[in-house]
Amino acid sequence: MNGTDTTLLDIRDRFPCLEQQVHGKRLAYLDSAATALKPACVIDAVTQHYTQESANIHRGVHHLSEKATASFEAARETVRAHLNAAHTHEIIFTSGTTDSINLVAQAFGQLEIGKGDEILITEMEHHSNIVPWQLLRERSGAVLRVAPISDDGDVDREAFRASLNERTKLVAFTAVSNALGTVNPVAEMAAEAHAAGASVLVDAAQGVPVQPMDVQALDCDFLAFSGHKVFGPTGIGVLYGKEGLLEAMPPVKGGGDMILSVTFEKTTYNALPYTFEAGTAHIAGAIGLGRALEFVSELGYAAIETHEAAILADAFEALQAIEGVRLVGTPSRRKGIISFLVDEIHPHDLGTILDQEGVAIRAGHHCAQPVMAHFGVPATARASFSLYNNHDDIDQLVAAIQKAQEIFG
Ligand SMILES: Cc1ncc(COP(=O)(O)O)c(C=O)c1O
Hints:
The chain is α/β, with parallel strands linked by helices. It folds into two domains: 6-30 and 301-407, Aspartate Aminotransferase, domain 1 (Alpha-Beta Complex), CATH 3.90.1150; 43-298, Aspartate Aminotransferase, domain 2. It has helices at 40-52, 63-83, 97-112, 131-140, 157-163, 186-195, 215-218, 243-248, 283-299, 301-320, 347-356, 369-375, 391-407; strands at residues 21-22, 25-26, 28-29, 91-94, 118-122, 143-147, 168-174, 199-203, 222-226, 237-241, 259-262, 267-269, 325-328, 337-342, 359-360, 362-364, 380-384. Strands 4-10-9-8-7-5-6 form a seven-stranded mixed sheet, with helices on both faces. It has a four-stranded antiparallel sheet with strand order 13-14-17-16, with helices on one face. A hairpin with an 8-residue loop joins strand 13 and strand 14 (337-342). The longest helix has 21 residues, at 63-83. Pyridoxal-5'-phosphate binds next to helix 3.
């Protein structure tokens, strides 16, 4: 583990999934941007919930329900502390980033967005931060503007600033690009959006796993992320929203838990955060997510960032040294995600051959077709790195790419 922090030395042992072989080979898991592997402590927390306190929350008077409710609400407080939100009720549990962004598109959309109002996104967004705004555009007659990216894969900041005007109601952009690895200057972009009078949503799906996302320091109005990308379970995610905005927004899903009283004539709604949490929550997921964020805090972002930077540098050097490998995007600041092409080999074919060598990468458009269109390619191969990757993974990746080149002649 060249150049890595000693805190992470035994880290692979904590991820049971890495104990297996794939097609008889050591597993080099290079697809953490799609979903991160889960450490044993998270799996144990979920198991503990189902074995010791499996019950519904908030409504039961019995022992198990009280225990489950306490664990669920403790997880919410862990999320609050992790994001440094001012209030625990600013943390809404959702099913993931996609769900969180759709919630804002619906509720904030109803509150603030009318015909001719503008929403600004960037060209590097994941489909989850494009399509909800297109749906809102169809409902409301709003205008969707897109700030372009440069050929390096950075947001064109001049164009971004020029797109802001008095009609801009919301600016929604990613903290880290899932297709290119670009790290956006979130606080600066948020300040520019606020100066134009717009609210700001940060898609932190790729941000929370790799860097501190302090919502007060960044001064964002909304922040969305998914549990599964930050070592937590699938099916759970978070929407952070500033209290004032959340209080003003109408609920968009009706059902249990989000009400105070119901008659056929009139329903009154529960207080935050429950207004936006209709129905039985993913209780085990929230508890697992809380444990995952504790795990990140125990290691510390400083150690994670140092380790990932070292792995990224290794991978960069190794890939550039292979003749026929073309990197897609060379942003000024990036996290551990590299998109690339090898000779004329289709990324799907490459991914299949790499899989036979025990190397898991992603091949496709990465739910970012506009990014692919920008670079004039239908798809790329993508290697993404996490704290459990090491130099052996990079060696295995390089050898597997060379094997693919041999096969394709
Ligand atoms: C930047 C970004 N935004 C949003 C999403 C959507 O996340 P989810 O599918 O967990 O809702 C992803 C997932 O890849 C992503 O990378």
